[in-house]
Structure formats: C-alpha cells, structure tokens
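wait is this the right file?? whatever heres the structure
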C-alpha cells in the first residue's frame, strides 16, 4: 500500500513555512501537544536551531509536505539508548500510509543507525488510528496518564507507549 510519489527526507530550514502550515491544521493540533496559531517565525527558529540530539524527517508527496516525525535522544547519559518520538500527518493525508511510512523510517533510523533499543511516545487515549499504527509497529501500552494535557477546554488522558528491542 505505498503512496505514489512519496519521499521521506530530513527536514531542511527552508521547510519552515510548510511545517508551520502543517501545525495549523485542526487534526494536527488535536493530536499533538502543539498550541494553535504557531507563528512562521517560531518554526523558522526551530528549524534553524535544531539540537544535535534531534532528528526531524518529513514526508512529501509531489514535493508537498504532508507529515513529519521527530526522534529525540534525551541528554541524560543513562538514557542514551532511548528515542522519543513525535509525529504529525496532514489532515487530508490521514489513513493513507503516510504515518506508517514515517514511523517505519524512524524505527529503521533508531535500530540500524542510532542503536536505540527503546522508543517511547505519548498518544491521546482517544486517538484510535494512531494507537493502532503504533501497536502495528510493535509499540505496547505501558501506562495511562490521567489529565495529562489540557486540550480544547478539557483535560485529556494519554497512553505512554514504548517499543523495546534488546
């Protein structure tokens, strides 16, 4: 089930406008910890000053940015075997294989190039499609955080999930 003309690549500083546009979409805001109304300048700064311990990949279809995945390694030396994952897929591209391609690419990077044996993420408990994707890729629910985040006027719970490779 490949997506025609899909490419996954490292994010570039000049992707700041497309990334800002991605993070203004209602579904992306609802599914991530980002606040609404991100400024273009915020994303320009984030992409020009990307920390060394963070990898950001984007999914593009016909050169249109349709999703991203971030992989961060915590700075604590005792957790250098861990990668923390965050993802966003364009509202119009959900359910079409973009998330799967991004997550599989991040897992491959973690396993084969960064030697990370534990990948972690948090997901809202009401985000059934994302939970299904993560479980399909080997992530397991480890715990539920009650009232973890404030979203759209109410507190919502999240699952913490992890994929462990030893």
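ok assuming it is, sequence goes like this
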């Amino acid at each position: 089930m490949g997506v025609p003309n899909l490419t996954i690549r490292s994010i570039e500083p000049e992707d700041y406008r497309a990334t800002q546009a991605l993070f203004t979409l209602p579904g992306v805001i609802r599914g991530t910890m980002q606040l609404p109304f991100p400024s273009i300048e915020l994303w320009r700064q984030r992409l020009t000053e990307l920390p060394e311990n963070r990898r950001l990949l984007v999914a593009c279809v016909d050169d249109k940015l349709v999703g991203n995945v971030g992989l961060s390694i915590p700075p604590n030396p005792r957790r250098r075997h861990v990668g923390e994952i965050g993802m966003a897929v364009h509202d119009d591209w959900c359910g079409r294989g973009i998330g799967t391609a991004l997550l599989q690419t991040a897992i491959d990077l973690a396993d084969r190039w960064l030697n990370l044996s534990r990948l972690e993420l948090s997901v809202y408990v009401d985000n059934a499609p994302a939970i299904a994707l993560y479980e399909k890729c080997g992530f397991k629910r480890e715990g539920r955080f009650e009232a973890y985040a404030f979203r759209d006027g109410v507190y919502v719970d999240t699952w913490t999930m992890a994929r462990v490779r030893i």
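The two ends are 29 Å apart (CA to CA). so i think its the right one actually
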